[in-house]
Amino acid sequence: MEMDKLVALCKRRGFLFQSSEIYGGLNGFWDYGPLGVELKRNIKEAWWRDMVSGHDDLAAPPGAPTAYEMVGIDCTIIMHPQVWKVSGHYDLFVDKMVDCKAEGCKGRFRVDHIPSSECPLKPSKHPGEHDKCKLTEPRDFNLMFKTIVGALGTEEDAAFLRPETAQGIFVNFRNVCDSSRVRVPFGIAQMGKSFRNEITPRNFTFRSREFEQMEIEFFCHPKSSPQWYQYWRDRRMKWYTDLGLAGERLRLREHGKEELSHYSCGTSDIEYAFPFLEAGDFGELEGIAHRGDFDLRSHMEGKLVTKDGQLIVEQGPDGKPKWKGSGKDLSYRDDLTNERFVPHVIEPSAGADRGTLAFLCEAYHEDQAPDDKGQMQTRVVMRFHPRIAPIKVAVFPLVKKDGMPEIAERIYRAIKPHMTVFYDESGAVGRRYRRQDEAGTPFCITVDGQTLTDGTVTLRDRDTLKQWRVHEKDLVAELRQRIG
Ligand code: ATP
Q: Which of 40, 61, 78, 224 is packed most tightly, with the most Cβ within 10 A?
C-alpha cells in the first residue's frame, strides 16, 4: 500500500486533518475528523474495556501467577515540576539535535534519525551549496514543553506539559492503595494526552508533538515480577492481533541485554511495519518494560538517574540528593504475610495515535468488485475489525419511492440506540456501497421491493460481498452477534 493513498483517503473521508489547516497547519499536530474520532475512540474504549473495566478481578488469567485487579485514574497534564526532576525527565529527556549550516537550508535533525554526518536535505534544499554543507555539533534538546503557571510569569513558576502519563500513576500509588483497597498484584491504567516537543515530527501521526497514550503501571512482588513481565508482553501482543493487526507486519521485539537499563530485567516493543518505513523496518506501537522499583523508590527517596546504565544520585551542595523525593512512604505491606516491600512495576505503554495509524494502514485494501452494471471495478475498502469500525452499519432505501425511505428510516432509528448507524439515500446503490467500503463500515442494509412484501432486507458483508436476507425484526440481534 502506498502511504500517499492512505493520507489522501484520511483527508477526503474525514479520518485525519492537519491541525489549523486553514492557517497552513502546524507541524506535528493533527486533528481527527468525524470518522477518525470514532475510530480512535473505539480503540481507546476497547483498550479500557479489555484491560480495566471488563477485566475479571477474581480470575487468575492463563499464564499469570495469581489473580489481579485493575483500576483506572485520570491525572492532570500539568503536575508539580518536582515530579519531572525526580523522574529524570528534567535532566535526561533529551534528544541530540544538529542543524545544517548551509545558507537557506534551515534543516534540523535528530542525530539518530540521519544516516550520516551530512545534511539529508542536500542537494534538493540547497543545490550547489551541498559540498560546503556542514552540520553543527550535536547538542541536547529537552523534549518537554514548558509553560508558566500563574500570573507572575517568573522562572520559578515554570511547569511542564507531561511527556508521559505514567508519572501521574506513580505519584498516586499511595492514594489508590489507601482509597480502593487494592492488593498487590494490581494495575493502574490511564489514558490521556502527552506532549513532546519532537525535533522532527514526521510520518503522519506516528511522531507528533501532541498525542495520546494508554499506559498501565502494574505493581507486583519483586519475586514474581519476571513472570508478570512475560504475562503482560504476551497479553498486549494478543490484544493487537485480536483486533486485526496480525501477520508479518506485527512483531514483538525483545530488547537485547545491552539495551536494558540497569534496573530492568526485560523490555520489549510491539512494532508494526508501517508502509512509510524502509522495507524491513518496524516502528514502535507500544513498549512493555520491567521497571523494577525504580519509579516508586525515586519518588520516595529522591532523584535516581540512570545514565549509560549507571545509577547516579545527583548531589546538591549539601551532599543530599539534588532533587528531593516526596519523602512519603511508597512501600506496600502485605497484610496476609506482613511483608513490607517496594513493589516492582511492569509498564505496558501504548500510543493511541500510533495504534490508530497502524489499524488504518492494516485496513487499507484495494480489490475488484462489481459496480451497478455488473462491471468489475477497483474498490478501496477499509477492512477494520467490526469492533473498531467507526460506523457499524449503513441503511439504504433502494429507491426514493414506494415507501422504502420510510421503512429505511424506521430501521435506522431502531438500530441507533445500539450502534453507530448511517442513513444514505442519495445516488445509485452501488455508489453508496463504495462510500461505506471506504469508511470501513462492515455491514450495509438495503430496503428493496421484497421488503414491501415479506419484511426482509438485504444485509451485505463489506469483506466477502455476500448478501443475504434478514427480517427487519431480527436485524439488531444479527448485527450485534456479528459485530461482537
Ligand atoms: P520513540 O522511540 O519512537 O520516540 P519512545 O520509546 O520514546 O518512542 P515511549 O516513551 O516508550 O516512546 O512512549 C510510549 C508510547 O507512546 C510509544 O510506544 C508510542 O506509541 C507513543 N509515543 C511516544 N512518542 C510519540 C510521538 N511523538 N507521537 C506519537 N506517539 C508517541
A: 40
> In this structure, which residue's CA is closest to atom 1 in ligand 1?
284
Asked if 98 and 136 touch (Cβ cutoff 8 Å), the reply is yes
d(CA 468, CA 472): 13
Task: Give pLDDT, residue 191.
Answer: 98
Instruction: Provide, rounded to the nearest whole percent, the portion of the chain with pLDDT above 90.
Output: 73
Where does ligand 1 bind, in terms of residues with CB under 6 Å? 164, 196, 198, 207-208, 211, 213, 284-287, 349-351, 353-354
For 297-315, the pLDDT digits (tens) are 989 987 655 555 455 556 6
How far from the centroid of its chain's Cα atoms is residue 462's Cα?
26
Q: Which residues of 322-349 are buried (b: 16+ CB within 10 A; e: fewer)?
A: bbebbeeebebeeeeeeeeebbbbbbbb
| Ligand 1 center–CA 334 separation, angstroms | 34
- CA of 351 relative to ligand 1 center, distance in Å: 6
Please list, in sequence order, all residues whose beta carbon lies within 8 angstroms of the beta carbon of residue 268, skipping any fewer than 6 positions away. 233, 252, 253, 254, 255, 287, 288
- How many Å apart are CA 346 and CA 232, to the nearest integer? 8
* Shortest-distance atom of ligand 1 to CA 283: 3
Amino acid at position 291, single letter: R
Whole-angstrom distance, CA of residue 119 vs CA of residue 123 = 9
> Residue 133 has what pLDDT?
60
Residues 206 and 42 sit within 8 Å (Cβ to Cβ): no
Q: Which protein residue's CA is at the shortest distance from atom 22 of ligand 1?
A: 351
Centroid of ligand 1 to alpha carbon of 58 (angstroms): 33
